[in-house]
TrEMBL record:
Entry similarity comment: Belongs to the aldehyde dehydrogenase family.
Protein name per the record: Betaine aldehyde dehydrogenase
InterPro entries associated with the record: Ald_DH/histidinol_DH, Ald_DH_C, Ald_DH_CS_CYS, Ald_DH_CS_GLU, Ald_DH_N, Aldehyde_DH_dom
EC number: 1.2.1.8
Amino acid sequence: TGSGREVGTWITEHPRIEKVSFTGGTDTGKKVMASASSSSLKEVTMELGGKSPLIVFDDADLDRAADIAMMANFYSSGQVCTNGTRVFVPNALKAEFEAKILERVKRIRAGNPEDENINFGPLVSFEHMESVLGYIAKGKEQGARLF
């Protein structure tokens, strides 16, 4: 056990660990890469910043691509690092694809996730909600006021 830095350094420098996979911020990713490469040139896989593109090709089923784009962009309320933040579409298909996305966006209902008519809640999970409520409680204990 130990801090992220201590454990991370141990993992990246241990000679019997052959691969490191890291998900997190760019600054920490640079440190992981430097440590892993200086110790034993171990294989490193990283996800740093959540720019997960969806690429739509000329022969794509645009209805299916639009459904996938919606899921990739909205399923997590935009709160996970693998959220599909970019969609690349050939210019010749752009207008048709945008129309299909707009149809689907108009059907989104955000609100209380306990309501069966709601597609998405304001937070990605119950655990995340508990975390946010904890931050609010701590802030109030320290004198913050809610408006």
